[in-house]
């Protein structure tokens, strides 16, 4: 059976990480390795983590930011494929990882992408928009438009060979890594054309105008490092490529009901998720 590693990095995420943990615990049909890398939370985050026995690795220590933490998780991943599920996101189907594994195995893929449903931060069963992947093409990376990173699963060895995440990035380190992967050479890309992750608004990349300015600057920096020209125009054009997200809705979205039976009662600390 294929083994899938899921890395969750977090800091003061007690308010939301229970959903993340429960959604991974509910997965079936594939061997799952869930790795938690905590940045030394001061709330009850690790108390929540300890309530879920499926977790394979749980580390809590200071780090240099989200991408440094992701690299720690990547270094510990032993699965055939690895993906990164943030502490305010959740798998919205109990066979989400099995679907990733099946799509990867069908063509011996280097990477797999699937749809992501953006949900309201306070009401995670409320759909705001849908990022479907049916029409996504790798050439869009050259315009700053990346596949949805919460459902991007790649061969663990491939990410290691690429050097992992550049932790000098604050927000766009995932875009930089995926861009480097595809620029290095053609990848066999598999797709699962349905929503597999619920993505809460309010994380680093969606947190206000200042975050968007930082994101744009970092995308331009990554494009420039890849040898592309006209990076400011390219980065702006990505908004046109994202327009369909505001018009589409997932054909099916189970929301938190998909893993409700796995939710463990935990302290209700209100905190800012990573």
TrEMBL record:
This one is known as Glycosyltransferase 2-like domain-containing protein
> Which Pfam families does the entry link to?
Glycos_transf_2
Limits of the Glycosyltransferase 2-like domain = 5-137
Source organism per entry reads Sphingomonas hankookensis
Going by the entry's taxonomy, the superkingdom of the source organism is recorded as Bacteria
**InterPro entries recorded:** Glyco_trans_2-like (IPR001173), Nucleotide-diphossugar_trans (IPR029044)
SUPFAM superfamilies in the record: Nucleotide-diphospho-sugar transferases
